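Researcher: Here's the sequence for the chain we discussed earlier.
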Amino acid sequence: MAPKFISRIAALLLLALFATTSCSKKSDDGTLTIAVIPKGTTHEFWKSIHAGAVKAKLELEAGGVKVNLIWKGPLREDDRDQQIQVVENFIGRKVSGIVLAPLDSAALVAPVESAVAAKIPVVIIDSGIKSDKQASFVATDNLKGGQMGGEQLGQLLGGKGKVILLRYQVGSASTEEREAGFLDAMKKFPGIQIISSDQYTGATRESAYQAAQNVLNRFGKDVDGMFAPCEPITVGITMALRDLGRAGVVKVVGFDAGAQPVEALQKGEVHALVVQNPVRMGYLGVMSVVKQIQGQPVEKRIDTGVALVTKENMGNSDMSELLFPPLKKYLNE
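Model: Thanks. This is the structure I predict for it:
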């Protein structure tokens, strides 16, 4: 009995030692190192996420919490392997916390759970993941956003016509929910026929443009409305409709702001945008992971809101703030 008891004590001591050595919450001067990992870094949506993260850092530092904020994402928004590598690298560096917008709801599960096992809290933003190990999920209600877009398109068409849904890419939980919400809303309009809903565009504006051209080569003369579940597809659809001479004629509802979609909205080439609040998302992502590090309670699900912007209401102050986020204030751009 004594040897077993001694070996059990030894095992517990080893576990305790691992728990203390596997987690480096603070540097010697008490600074928290927070890694923010977006899906990509080029689109304006991610720049807005970055601005929100910087806003949180500044506010925390004003309150006496030292924060080293590291912003690093994959070069392409379809490079799951690179994003996994980024997460694994930060685990190896023993950062204090991770804020992650996962490219794939399944592929990022193992890296996230590895981080949590290493005592590094993770907050998921923007797009969901098939795990419950994260401290919090901070994001838009994407199903609701897709429903709002579908209902708006149905009303624009007076409940009649033919529409096209262009999809983003498999595994992206946020856009998959928007697409599902859109199709759900279409059920309310029996006079509307969905003539294409199985085409995927990929992650870039260029690939979205090509996919929009391809689908419009088949259905361009018949289509009355189109739904885009994210900013690159909104841009790609607009460009393809211009080529066809049908920009402004075909009713387009897009998702997310950005210079090009907002300009198209002003011109009447896009008829509505379902808009998120990425600055708030980045801000609350960082704030939530710091709370978790400090042992404060964190909500498991935080809804950052969604709004429908049209040409008529885009000048309203609350809508204008969503369309033109304060990037220069926080990113020196």
